[in-house]
Amino acid sequence: MLTHRIKEATQELAENAGRPVRYLASSSLRKENVARDIAERDGVTEGLVCVLTAVEPCHTFTVGPNREAKKLELRSHPGKCLHQYFYLIDPQLGWLNVRLQTWFPFTVPIVINGREWLSRELCRKGIDFERRENCFTDLGDVSRAQKAMDRQLRTAWPRLLDRLVRQVHPSHRTLFGKDRLHHYWSADETEWATDVMFRSSRELSALYPRLVQYAMTTFGSGEPLSSARSSAFWASAAVSSNSAKRK
Predict the structure, then answer these.
(1) Which of 242, 239, 186 is nearest to 59 (CA)?
(2) What is the separation of C-alpha 1 from the centre of its chain, rounded to a whole number of angstroms?
(3) Are 171 and 6 in contact (CB under 8 A)?
(4) CA 68 to chain centre
(5) Are 138 and 131 in contact (CB under 8 A)?
(6) What is the pLDDT along the chain (247 residues), one digit of tens a residue?
(7) How many C-beta neighbours within 10 Å does residue 209 have?
(8) In Å, how far are 51, 98, 149, 152 from 91, measured between CA atoms?
(9) 61, 86, 102, 217: which has the fewest C-beta neighbours closer than 10 Å?
(10) Distance of alpha carbon 218 from alpha carbon 204, whole angstroms
């Protein structure tokens, strides 16, 4: 059974890396927090942090009879199955997670944070910066940092994402015997954000009350409170894939 083979491969992968596989029975637990607690507890700075599993809604297929056509047909329907969340600290991309559906079509959403990725690039280039949560509050060289960010737009995404899948889903190569199926990648959810930077804190202090007032009188109650608390916008990127032949 394909699902059983995926579970076995995941268990073997985690054991070889010396990392835990933990089932989460409650939907109230935030997986991101659980994974970060494990990383901090075990001092993980690179590679696989943990695998968190949970039964969640999915989209899957079954084969059933069509009485009018007098033949079997493939039917798409919602369901529930076990999902595996692989939390990684990648040398290039930093903190990310890969979510593997253990039922056909074995979809693999991957969540990547562009700011996390940029932080790694700035460190490699020796560019000083300050980062508070998911925003940059200071950059030693804004021009070079912007160029590094722009290079993310020229990423060879299939090659990058296929590399991540190979790290956490080695059984994919042999699931369908000699038929090598490739992932068809698409952007499932994406967020774009712009950091507005000031040359002096005095200029920002003079303008900030007006910005907060504008937010409170223009947007809904949730947006200005969130913006005032973080004093920045959040940015992330997400991509997903379906197990299908490339077209």
Answers:
(1) 242
(2) 28
(3) yes
(4) 44
(5) no
(6) 888 989 999 999 999 999 999 999 988 899 999 999 999 999 999 999 999 999 999 999 888 888 888 899 888 899 999 999 999 999 999 999 999 999 988 999 999 999 999 999 999 999 999 998 888 888 999 999 999 999 998 999 999 999 999 999 888 777 777 777 778 898 888 888 777 778 888 888 898 899 888 888 887 766 545 544 443 333 223 333 333 333 3
(7) 9
(8) 18, 15, 17, 15
(9) 217
(10) 20
The Cα 12–Cα 169 span in angstroms is 11
* Alpha-carbon span 135 to 222, nearest angstrom: 19
Query: What pTM did the predictor assign?
Result: 0.80
CA-angle at 240, arms to 237 and 243, nearest 5°:
165
SS (H, E, C) the chain: CHHHHHHHHHHHHHHHHCCCEEECCCCCCCHHHHHHHHHHHHCCCCEEEEEEEEEEEEEEEEEEEECCCCEEEEEEEEEEEEEEEEEEEECCCEEEEEEEECCCCCCCCEEECHHHHHHHHHHHHCCCEEEECCEEEEECCHHHHHHHHHHHHHCCHHHHHHHHHHHHCHHHHHCCCCCCCCEEEECCCEECCCCCCCCCHHHHHHHHHHHHHHHHHHCCCHHHHHHHHHCCCCCEEEEEEEECCCC
Cβ–Cβ < 8 Å for 60, 79? yes
Tell me how far apart the alpha carbons of residues 108 and 93 are, in angstroms, rounded to a whole number.
17
**Class of residue 81 by CB neighbours under 10 A (exposed 0-12, middle 13-18, buried 19+):** middle
